[in-house]
Amino acid sequence: MNLNAEVIVGDSRETLKTLPDKFVQCVVTSPPYWGLRDYGEGDQIGLEQSPSEFIEQLCLVFDEVWRVLKDDGTIWVNLGDSYAAMRDSKATPDSLRVGEGTKVNAAANRNPVNPNAAGLKHKDLAGIPWRFAFAMQDRGWYLRQDIIWAKPNPMPESVTDRCTKSHEYIFLMTKKPSYFYNHEAIKEEAKTVPSVRDRSSERYQDSFTGGRFSEGARTFGSDDMKKNKRSVWNVPTSHYKDAHFATYPPELIHPCILAGTKEGDIVLDPFSGSGTTGEVALQNGRHYIGLELSADYAKLSEKRLTDAVGMLGNVIIRQERD
């Protein structure tokens, strides 16, 4: 199969409008986190002064995603949280995520946050992921699951008044109550063999005359020694060697793409970054469309996508912004 990958350079709030209705099967993405990083790209999402402003800008993107997503499609959104603080040169560790090669204080310098104006107190956890999830519900999306990304190797933190943060969320959302979801493709290894149990014949039921249990024995577990994938995913953090900013690991989004698509389907990432979503999509026989604000990041992803698509595929970087 000849696979195609295209990265469109520009603000996803605008570039999404260039895509046809009901065009993609699945969206896998990690939007910028509120107030944590400055990517140096003008009117970028993530530098808003309050959580509500940030959530509104994200939802504007996903309003357009609704249009381009097929009715039986799924979206998988990885979103972390942040703490409210005056993010300046004297900021506490709670106010930003230090490291990962990003401009940790530039975001505060360009658009400082006033915690009181945002309805938050200094050192409050902002609750960004759930604010986003509930806002999406209000806009008509079905919130089907909150998946916990548990990190066995979290970034060290010097805080002494709370635990080190070692998880983020992935939200599975849909347009309809019924949608394409291949649970068989992402089953996990089971540790126990199938067992047979007839609860109605067990001794503690001797004096029970009601109909609490169905008649006959039931088999628990499957013959293929697989179990339905759980909602806590233990995946170590990793970095793409050529990127100077944080990326999510391919292992994290692999099950999203396998469960949400068939071979030949189109996967979209409206915050493409270094192209992790595209790499995994192409490696599994799916086409890819990425939207990226930064021309530098789009260029960075070109080699990665070209390697993933193979000799018979096509990779296009298209400039939509001035």
The gist of it:
The chain is α/β, with parallel strands linked by helices and 322 residues long. The protein contains seven helices and 13 strands. The protein has helices at 12-15, 51-68, 106-110, 128-138, 250-260, 276-283, 295-309, and strands spanning 4-9, 24-29, 69-79, 142-150, 167-174, 188-189, 195-197, 218-220, 226-227, 232-234, 266-269, 287-292, 314-319.
Order of helices and strands: EHEHEHHEEEEEEEHEHEHE
Helix share bin: 10-25%
Instruction: Write down the Rg.
Output: 22 Å
| Poorly predicted tracts of residues | 86-112
The beta-strand count equals 13
Overall tally of structural domains = 2
> What fraction of the residues are assigned to beta strands by DSSP?
15-25%
End-to-end Cα distance: 34 Å
CATH architecture of the largest domain: 3-Layer(aba) Sandwich
Tell me the major beta sheet: 9 strands, mixed
Query: Which class best fits the helix and strand makeup?
Result: alpha/beta
- CATH superfamily of the largest domain, please? Vaccinia Virus protein VP39
In round numbers, the mean pLDDT is: 83
Shape annotation? globular
How would you sum up this structure, described in words?
With 322 residues, the protein is an alpha/beta fold. It folds into 2 domains: 4-187 and 228-319, Rossmann fold; 190-227, no CATH class. It is built from 7 helices and 13 strands. It has helices spanning 12-15, 51-68, 106-110, 128-138, 250-260, 276-283, 295-309; strands spanning 4-9, 24-29, 69-79, 142-150, 167-174, 188-189, 195-197, 218-220, 226-227, 232-234, 266-269, 287-292, 314-319. The strands form 3 sheets. A 9-stranded mixed beta sheet has the order 10-4-5-3-2-11-12-1-13. Strands 6-9 form a two-stranded antiparallel sheet. The chain is globular and about 60 Å long.
